[in-house]
Amino acid sequence: MYKIQPNTLFTGKIIKYLPTCHSTNDIAAEMIQSQEVFEGTIIVTDHQTAGRGQRGNTWEAALKQNLTFSLILKPSFLRASDQFQLNVAVSLGVHEFLSQYLSEGLSIKWSNDIYHYDKKLGGILIENTLQGYQIGYSVIGIGLNINQTQFAVPTASSLKVASNTLQPYNLDLLLSGLSEKIEKYYLLLKQGYYESLKMRYLSVMYRYQEWHYFKKNGELFLGQIIGIDQTGKLAIETEEEDLLYFNFKEVEFVINP
């Protein structure tokens, strides 16, 4: 399984397939520590027993129905303070890939969840190791709901459900195509095109420049997302015209206030 041949320079050229594992990100981190690793290596599994999302959230996926993998990159051209730039590039790669199958309703929910309208298709967790002031290695953990149709939470969806497709998607082909799109945006970032990538990121951002309710410290407020700063903080303008900046988990998106 996952014998792919993506049209890439390095991404997905080496695949480590594990039928089951606790966390592909942890396996990737162990490979980096052992120094037996090449940039672009992908660790993919059918069943992840201890997958995690941003800030300790868990990630659950049905067996052999979805894509659960980690990609090892070496973005030593990025300073530690600029690590959110990698987040932007990878998210755009995933978004562009999925947009081939979903013509509308697809967006990136800050900072790196993939949404179809108000339902989550997947998420990205990036864990970096530092070398001085630069990033050494990055482990890009990606979980995408593909063929699963039943979910424990009502806010989850999958590519199969969102595209209203009867036949299941071929996971090997999807992983190959996804590798190509991620590498495309990673190389654009490496070539210095971050500002244009940031503008594209904003253009496909969930609820960008729309008035919605958010929650801060348990309190509701009305605001609109107007951008992100250099470190990736979310900028929200309130109805009182105050400008607030939020780190991860400091603000909650409210679906039905």
General description of the model:
This protein is an alpha+beta fold. The protein has two domains: 189 residues, 2-Layer Sandwich (BirA Bifunctional Protein, domain 2), CATH 3.30.930.10; 42 residues, Roll (SH3 type barrels). Helix content is 24%, strand content 31%. The strands form two sheets. Strands 1-2-3-7-6-5-4 form a seven-stranded mixed sheet, with helices on both faces. Strands 11-10-9-8-12 form a five-stranded antiparallel sheet, with no helix packed on it. α2 crosses α4 and α2 packs across α5.
Quick take:
The chain is an alpha+beta fold.
The major pleated sheet works out as: 7 strands, mixed
Cα separation of the termini: 44 Å
Count up the helices. Answer: 5
CATH superfamily of the largest domain: Bira Bifunctional Protein, Domain 2
Let me know the number of strands.
Answer: 12
Number of domains: 2
CATH class of the largest domain: Alpha Beta
Provide mean pLDDT, rounded.
93
Which spans have pLDDT < 50 for at least 5 consecutive residues? none
Order of helices and strands: EHEEHEEEEHHHEEEEE
Task: Identify the notable features of this structure and list them briefly.
single chain; 257 residues; alpha+beta; BirA Bifunctional Protein, domain 2; SH3 type barrels; seven-stranded mixed beta sheet; five-stranded antiparallel beta sheet; 5 helices; 24% helix
